[in-house]
Structure formats: structure tokens, C-alpha cells
Amino acid sequence: MRQGQGHSPSARARSARPVLIGLAALGLALFVLPLLGLVIRALTEASGLALLEPAVRSALLLSLLVSTAATALAFVLGFPLAWVLARLDFPGRRLVRAAVTLPMVLPPVVAGVALLSVFGRRGVLGPALSAMGIELAFTPAAAVLAATFVAAPFLIVTLEAALEAMDPRLEQAAATLGASEWRILWTVTLPTIRPAVLAGLALSWARALGEFGATITFAGNVSGRTQTLPLAVYETLQSDFEGALQLSVVLLVVSLSVLVGLRGHFLGAPAEAQR
């Protein structure tokens, strides 16, 4: 056997490391540089406080209310959906899962048009809703519904994965001891998947907070009524770039705080990272 020809497997593996590290550094720069540039420009160029404007404060308050209401609605409707998808085997389950997760990849504007085509005044359910005195389109309720539509799938996917990974023997043991299904749900299932519930709620809330396309299409952009903070950023950008910088930083800080608060619960981080 000839000596000195070729490279050992370990040497070939090490030769790939610099390339991977270099590409990883470029990828990191792609994400970090725009955010860093946003903060730097906001600190160095923005003058005055855009948050002192009544319209901006109203938009911030509405965003917080809409995202919180949308997250609550997402849990009320999303947990049962996640439970059904994780625990029941029925015809068309894959189709149901696809329909539930479709808003994650659907362009937000298309989501808004879809909501408008159903709940708008001339939508499929519009005449029936109008007959009952209910008007959804271009109201704060429309903003909540739009945010729920695009944010709930993130919660459902997280909860479904947690329910599928949960040890079924825990619930079986509780049932053996005579606990009802509701008692098992509240005292065994939910406490066991609590990290996933918190992560899903936080991610859903953050997604609802940043919603733009579906909201402006279905709820409109009426200052003091349906204008959320992302819409205020867009409107401010048309005439006041410095103000838009400040508002963008506010959204950035809130979103970053949510991600830091997750503490590795999302995407199945190991238990050590969750402590």
C-alpha cells in the first residue's frame, strides 16, 4: 500500500470546517447587519420621540390588545385542533393539517383577501352577518381575526409536536386511578406540555404583533380604530423616515424580548437550555 497519497477521513473533515464556518459567518451577517443598522440609524439620526404622538400611542395600544386577544383566541381554538391532529386518526387528517398550517406560508395579503371574501360585506357570509347586525370587515374585530388567522398555526404546530412527544403512560396512569378526561387534561396533559404551551403562546403573540398584510387588507388602516403599530410604521415611513426608525426599533425590541423569553423551549431545545 502506498503511503502519503490522499488524505485521511479526519483531514478531509477538517478541510470542510473553514468553508462551513465562513458561510455561517456570512449567514449571520445577513441577519444581524440589517437589525444593527436599524438600531444605529435610530440612535444617531432620529430626533424627538415618535411615541409621544397620540396616533402612535393609539397604534401601540391597539397592537398590544389585538395580539393578546388573537393569542387567546388562537389557544381556545388551536389547542383542540392540535389535540385532534395529535391523538385521533381519521380520514383526511393530512388535509386538515395542511389547511391549518397553510397560513404559515400563504402571503399575508392573500390571507386578508381570503378573509374579506368570506366575512366582508359582500363575502360568502357577509349578508348573513349583516342580517344579524354584525360587521367584521374594517373593524378592530377584523384586526383580531386577521392576526389569529396568521398566528394560530404557529401555536398549533408547537402544541401538536408536544402532544405527540408526550409519554402516553402518564395519561393512562391517571385514567387508571379514575380521573375523568377533563381532569386528566387539566392536571396531567397541560402541565406536562407547559413549556411548549408557553413557547407557542409567545411565538403566536409575536407573530400577531407584527402582522401587516392581512390586517391592512381585511381591517384597513384607520388611525385610532384599526391602525396597528406595523401599519403605523408603514404610514410614518411615507413622510417621516426618522419616526419610522423609532417605531421599527420598538417592534424589534418587543420581538427580541419575546424570543429571549422563550429560553430555548421552541424547536425542541434540550432540557438544559430550558432551565
If you had to describe this structure to a student in words, what would you say it looks like?
By secondary structure, the chain is mainly alpha-helical. The protein has 13 helices and no strands. The model is unreliable at 267-275 (pLDDT under 50). It is 73% helix and 0% strand. Helix 7 (168-176) runs antiparallel to helix 8. The protein has a single domain (58-274), classed as MetI-like (MetI-like fold, Orthogonal Bundle). This is Molybdenum transport system permease. Keywords: Cell membrane, Membrane, Molybdenum, Sulfate transport, Transmembrane, Transmembrane helix, Transport.
Please write out the topology.
Blueprint lengths: L8 H37 L8 H34 L5 H9 L6 H12 L6 H6 L8 H26 L2 H9 L4 H12 L1 H16 L3 H6 L10 H9 L3 H22 L8 H4 L1
Helix pairs in contact: 1-12, 2-6, 2-9, 2-11, 6-9, 7-8, 9-12, 11-12
The helix-strand sequence is HHHHHHHHHHHHH
Largest sheet: none
The CATH topology corresponds to MetI-like fold
Intertermini distance: 54 Å
- Give me the secondary-structure category: mainly alpha
Brief characterization of the structure:
This protein has 13 helices and no strands. With 275 residues, it is mostly helical.
